[in-house]
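The records we work with from here on pair a chain with its fold. Taken together, the tokens spell out the fold as the letters spell out the chain. The record below shows the convention in full.
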Amino acid sequence: MLTRSHRSSPVPSTDASSASAPTGEPYAPSTEKEAAMVTEDQVRTWVERYVQAWTTNSKKDIAALFTPRAEYHEWPYETDWIGRDAIVEGWQGRAAWQEGGWDFEWSILTINGDTAAIEGTGRYKELGTFANLWTVTFDKSGKCTVFRMWNNEI
């Protein structure tokens, strides 16, 4: 069973073109590629697809979320999967976590340029309840380039 909660107020976002670096120079992304500007609808769609992939454990569903060179980091479990293939393999290795059933509630905290912060609570019948904080960085096509999760049992 999947449950979702969303904040009813608009998610604040900033326009990277209007931000300035400490030197007074216009903001420039840290890489040569221009940073994506992600919308609330894109984030919602991505999280819904993430939950669907967690449900199906399908290689196709998981891979569709991430770029080929994406990174997936999780604390305190020291998970560092680099590359889409490693993410799929690691994710599928956790299929047993779903035994007995689970649900997940989430909401978007904020969006800043190409990165969204998401809070969630996962309740696993066999594992317990976990508070999650995610930061998800997206490319221009809406796929994740960097996923960071702080996952704490409560």
About this structure: The two ends are 20 Å apart (CA to CA). The longest strand covers residues 102-112. DSSP finds three helices and six strands in the chain. The helical segments are 40-56, 59-63, 84-92.
